Every structure is written in C-alpha cells, then in structure tokens.
Amino acid sequence: MERKTVELPRPDAMIFDMDGTLFKTETLLVPVFHKVFDRLREEELYAGETPPEELILGCLGMLLPDIWRRVLPHQSETVHRRADDLLLEFELEGLQQLDTELYPQVLETLQELKRCGVRLFVASNGLEHYVKGVAEAHRILPLFEGIFSAGEYKTATKVDLVKLLLDRHGVSRAWMVGDRSSDVEAGKRNGLTVIGCAYAGFGDGSELAGSDVLIGSFGELIPLYDQAKEA
Fold first, then answer.
1. Three-state SS sequence of the chain
2. Which BP terms in the Gene Ontology apply to this protein (predicted)?
C-alpha cells in the first residue's frame, strides 16, 4: 500500500499480535462462534438468535471478559465463563479439523526475519492454549523465542503484557506489529516503533491511528526492515 517515507530504527526484535495480524481469525472463529451459541442454547444458558458474526469479529484484540460483555451484555458471569470454556474447546478442535489460514506471506516473512537475526515474539490478549495452538497448528511455533498471552500471564492490558515480555527477554529495541488500537497503545507506551497491519479490516478507520507505518500485506515487513536505520 502507499505510505509516506518514514525512517525507522532497525529493530533487534519484532513483537506480533496473533489475531488479525498473523492468523486469519475468521477462518476459525466464524464456525466456532456458531457452535458456541448452539451449545449454550442446548444447555439452556441462552435463548434467542446467535448474534451477528460481525459483532465478535469487531471485538478481536479485546480481553475475553470485555468481548462477552459486548456480545452477551445481558447475560450473567456464569454464562460468560461457560462461553469462555466452549470457545477454547471448539477453537482447539477447529484448529485440527478446519481449513484455517495464516495471512499470505506470514510463514515466509517470519522465516526470513529470523534468518536475518531478528528475535520474534507474540503478544496476544487471547487464551494461552489458543494462541500457542494456532502457532503450533500452522507450524510457526519454533520461529518464536516467546509467546506471551493475557490468558497465561493474567495481564489486565496489552501494555502490561508487552512490558512483561520486554523485561523478561531483555528487549530494548523492537517493533510492535498489530492490527488493533490495543497494539498501537502497547507499542507506544513501551517506547516501541508501531507497524499497523491494515489488511485485516476488523476495526474502524481510526483503529491504527498513531502507528509509525501502515502495511497492506505482511510481506511488506521485509523491505521495511531492510531500509531501517542501524542504531
């Protein structure tokens, strides 16, 4: 995509969001979403139609409690926690049974970045077994030095999760790569360069405001890295 010329510092590491950045989430989430509501109705925990798919897709990047407060605003915490369990169960099943997808050029780009000596990490607001399950199912798990999830570390915000990652791995010069405002905030508040992924299209037009650069495909990371300035 067209972008203004920006001189970026060359990173030692890149930190990636998962949903909407590496993983084409709708290839898993849409069928799983319907299964969750079918089961909630079977268990008499929910009555009525399944909410629109666009509603949960618009919540990608949020913590699960915030997602269910938006998708199931009139249901109890008991229903929300049951929805958590069902979502994870059906997602893990789906990763084995459904034809899910990474975005184009993700595998090749990650391999090239690693070959160039870039340390690779994931920071996601998702559940631990889901985030690691996606990476394992799509054979990118060995490329990452660390996979950090809000589900595993119980962080309240992505800002906190990224700070934990930076501290634990001694990372000081990194790019935060993601598609949601929470990624932009996590990067900026931790002093990182932010690369906004504009290809998923789950958020509104202001979602990536504040990014240093917007990319229209994952493969654009390679020329950005090649052109970045050594410290």
1. CCCCCCCCECCCEEEECCECCCEECHHHHHHHHHHHHHHHHHCCCCCCCCCCHHHHHCCCCCCHHHHHHHHCCCCCHHHHHHHHHHHHHHHHHHHHHCCCEECCCHHHHHHHHHHCCCEEEEEECCCHHHHHHHHHHCCCHHHCCEEEEHHHHCCCCHHHHHHHHHHHHCCCCEEEEECCHHHHHHHHHCCCEEEEECCCCCCCCCCCCCCCEEECCHHHHHHHHHHCECC
2. DNA repair
Give the other-Cβ count within 10 Å of 203's Cβ.
Answer: 19
Spatial contact of 153 and 161, defined as CB atoms under 8 Å apart: yes
Confirm whether pTM is higher than 0.85.
Answer: yes
Task: Please give the structure tokens belonging to residue 71.
Answer: 């998708």
Cβ neighbours of 136 (radius 10 Å): 14
pLDDT digits (tens, 9 = 90+) for 82-122: 999 999 999 999 999 999 999 999 999 999 999 999 999 99
The answer to whether 211 and 188 have CB atoms below 8 angstroms apart is: no
Lowest mean pLDDT among 26-30, 31-35, 59-63, 167-171: 59-63
Closest residue by Cα to residue 165 from 1, 9, 16, 2: 16
